[in-house]
Design goal:
This protein is an alpha+beta fold and 183 residues long. The protein contains 7 helices and 7 strands; from the N terminus they run αβααββαβαββαβα.
C-alpha cells in the first residue's frame, strides 16, 4: 500500500462531522484507514502515524481542541478549512513517477442501478484522471493512486462498492503499455 495521507483523512473526517469528539475522531479515522491495512502489524504502525498527524496538525494550527463540559472535541481552524478545500476532487491529480514500477492499479466497482448517477460520476472522475476503461466497471492505471481512490471512496460514501488492486500483469497488456507510453 502507498502511504496514506493521514492529514487528509483526519481533516476530511473533522470537516464532514464538524465538531468531533477526540474519542470519536480516532475510531472513525482509524476505521477508514483500517480498510486499507488489514495486517495487524501495519495497523499498529498506522495508528501511531495517525496520532502523530493529529499532534502535528494541532501544532500547525490546522485543528484545535475545544472543551465542552467534560468532553474534549476537535474542530478545524480557518487554516484547516483552507487545506480541506484544496482536497476537492476537481483539483486532484495523480503524480506520475519517472519510472513505472511494473504494477497496474485496477479499480473495480459494483454500484447498484439505484446509484446510477454516483456510478457515472465515479466513471467521469476516473476518465478525467487518466484511467483506461477495460470494462464498464473495471478501470486501470499504471501509477500509485491508492490515496486518491481512498478519497473518492470517502467523498462518495462508496467504500464497500469499490475495490483497489495492484496487479503484476494484465492479459494482452501491450496495448495498455503503448497507450501509457510505458516500457
Amino acid at each position: 500500500m502507498g502511504n496514506i495521507n493521514f492529514q487528509k483523512v483526519i481533516l476530511k473526517t473533522i470537516a464532514t462531522a464538524g465538531l468531533i469528539s477526540i474519542v470519536v475522531l480516532a475510531p472513525n479515522a482509524l476505521q477508514i484507514i483500517k480498510q486499507f491495512s488489514p495486517k495487524k502489524k501495519k495497523w499498529i504502525r498506522e495508528k501511531y502515524y495517525m496520532n502523530n498527524s493529529i499532534r502535528n496538525m494541532l501544532r500547525k494550527g490546522l485543528i484545535q481542541k475545544v472543551r465542552k463540559g467534560n468532553t474534549e472535541f476537535m474542530e478545524l481552524t480557518k487554516e484547516g478549512e483552507n487545506i480541506v478545500s484544496q482536497y476537492k476532487l476537481g483539483d486532484m491529480e495523480i503524480k506520475k513517477t519517472k519510472r513505472w514500477d511494473g504494477k497496474w492499479r485496477v479499480i473495480i466497482f459494483d454500484i447498484s442501478e439505484k446509484k446510477k448517477r454516483l456510478r457515472n460520476l465515479l466513471r467521469f472522475h476516473l476518465d478525467r484522471l487518466g484511467f483506461i476503461k477495460l470494462q464498464n466497471s473495471v478501470w486501470v492505471f499504471p501509477y500509485d493512486c491508492e490515496d486518491l481512490i481512498f478519497l473518492l471512496k470517502t467523498d462518495f460514501f462508496i467504500g464497500d462498492d469499490v475495490l483497489y488492486m495492484e496487479v503484476n500483469r494484465i492479459e494482452n497488456e501491450k496495448w495498455l503499455k503503448e497507450l501509457f507510453n510505458l516500457k
